Structures are given as C-alpha cells and as structure tokens.
Amino acid sequence: MPLPRGGARQAAPEARGAEDPARRLDVHSRRPDRFYNVAYQPLSAPNGVVTDIIAAISDVTELVRARRAGEEARAAAELASRSKDELLRTVSHELRTPLTPILGFAEALQRRQEVRPEELHRALDVILRNAREEARLVDELIDVSEIAAGSLRMEMRPVELGPIVRACVDEATPAADAKGIALDASVASDTLLGGDAGRLAQAVRTLLSNAIKFTPRGGHVSVEVTRKGGSLRLRVADTGKGIAPGELPHVFELMRARDGSLRRAHGGLGLGLYLVRHVVEAHGGRVWAESDGEGRGATLVAELAWSDQRREETEP
Question: What is the bridge-based pairing of β-strands 298-305 and 231-238?
C-alpha cells in the first residue's frame, strides 16, 4: 500500500503506539491539520532482501486534537489557578494596607483622655482617607465578580461625556498638584452618547488615576475628548513610565496593570484597567494602549459611539 504524501513527522508523539518505533511512523498529509499513524511490516526474501512492505494507515487526527486540547485546557487551568492565587495574595495585602492606619489612629484616640483639636483633625483625616480607599478596593472586587457573573449593572440613558470628563479632571487635580504634575483637558462640544454616567465617570477616574500614578513628579498628563465621524475618543496621555511593546496588547487584562513590579510599587489590585475595558465594551466601544516604549509615556484610548439623538429630535 503506498504511503500518503508528506514526510515522516515527530510532531504528534501522542499518537504513537507501543510497537517498535522502527516499524511505526507518525505522518501528516499535505494538509497540516490531518495526522496519520502508519504501522508497517517489511517482507523479506530468503536472502534477506526486503521485497515488499505491508502497511496499515490509521487516521488519528481526532485523537491528536483531543489530547492537545486536553493539554491546552490543563495549561489554561494552571494559569487561572496561578492568577487566582496572585489575586488573593494581592487582595489580602491591599485590603490590610488602609486598614492598618484606620485601626492605629482609632485605637490611639480611644486611649487618649484628652485630644487636641489639631490631633483629632489629623486622625480623622487619616481614618476617612483610608476608609475611602478600603471602600474603593471592595467596590472593585464586587465589580469584577459581577463581570465574571455577566451581571455588571448599567443604567443606560442619554448623557454628555464632556461634563463627566471635566468633573473627573477637577477631582484629580489635587492629586496631580501634590506630585507637581501638570494636568490639562481639551473636550469637544456635543459629546452626547447613550451610557451609564456613573460607570463612565468610574472609567475616566481610573484612567486619570492610572496616568498620575505612573507619571513622575514634574510630568504632564493630558486628557482629550474628540469626535470623529460616529465615534467619541477619550485619550489620556502621560509622560510617565511608558509601556514595553510586548505589553501593549495586555494592558487592559486582569491583573496586568503595566507590570507586577510597578503594581506592587504603586499599590492597587491591578483591576482598574480591566474594569475600564468592560465598562467601555458594555457601551459598545473599545479600548487600547499606545506607547513609544518604556520611559516614553503612554496614551490610553477609549472609543465610544457618539449619539446624534439630539440632532434627530430637533429636525423637522
């Protein structure tokens, strides 16, 4: 029996049997997605010269595919398990971080018989600031669990993106000023879209916080909202750490947050940009990152569908 065209192949060892490997080959056809197992037996003349070969060819494509799928599933499960373990470790650390000063200052106030007004003001400021941070971390975890369950809450209605962005920039200004970072915004007029104002504000705040976090003292963060055709583009650019080319496709993935070492240095669960992606996608949009490389700043972009609902309502 003639053998199928193609060469002897070692790429599918899982299809081999227990026979002598000298009498068994794994081969593939000209189509790279088909695999065959060939068992053969030489027939020799009395003088030892091989005169014929008897061969049995089996199509083992499905067996190879099934075993490879199983290997891929196991690798994916191991990766998911490692990611879960990393998330739990990070969550434990991050939740403890703001809790420590809350407990410390509360216990100090409880022990003191008399507290000067300035000491009380400072203690309350620390407690409130860290309590808000704790609440933010818990909210992020709740949002991620809702995304996993496919139940992230949205209340869609016509909203203007411009005022939301300006309000978020005003909120972020004190944090930028504290680091000596210049923060400016340029917002187009007529930025109507269908969306959840609270979720959009959450996404903008996260993008701004991320830019300020990764920008060194004396840097610059700019926010721009432009309208191009049927889309609104929100661009948040910074002069900070930048992003390596290989990381650009992964910036908005769970737990990436630029990279693990930066996330640990700057704090946070590494969930923010993952949530931004899901909020934007829930609005029918998309997100991506741009950077010329490490140390050359980065721009995070959210593209959303612009609504001309107001214009349609005013047309005769």
Answer: antiparallel
How many Å apart are CA 42 and CA 40, to the nearest integer? 7
> Measured between alpha carbons, how far is residue 40 from residues 5, 53, 57 in Å?
16, 7, 9
173 and 295 co-located in one domain: yes
**Is the distance from CB of 222 to CB of 237 less than 8 angstroms?**
yes
Nearest by Cα to 165 from 223, 219, 212 = 223
pTM to 2 decimal places: 0.64
d(Cα 226, Cα 218) in Å, to the nearest integer? 26
Domain boundary among 148, 172, 189: 148
Instruction: Render pLDDT for 114-139 as a digit per residue (tens, 0 to 9).
Output: 888 888 899 999 999 899 888 888 88
Q: What are phi and psi of 156, to 5 degrees?
A: -80, 135
Q: Is the CB of residue 250 less than 8 Å from the CB of residue 256?
A: yes
Dist CA 246 CA 251 (whole Å) = 10
Average of pLDDT values for 245-250?
90
233 and 122: one domain? Answer: no
Q: Looking at the structure, do residues 310 and 173 belong to the same domain, yes or no?
A: yes
* Residue with more model confidence, 9 or 126: 126
Place of tokens 């191991």: 78
Q: Which residues contact 132 (CB under 8 A, 6 or more apart)?
A: none
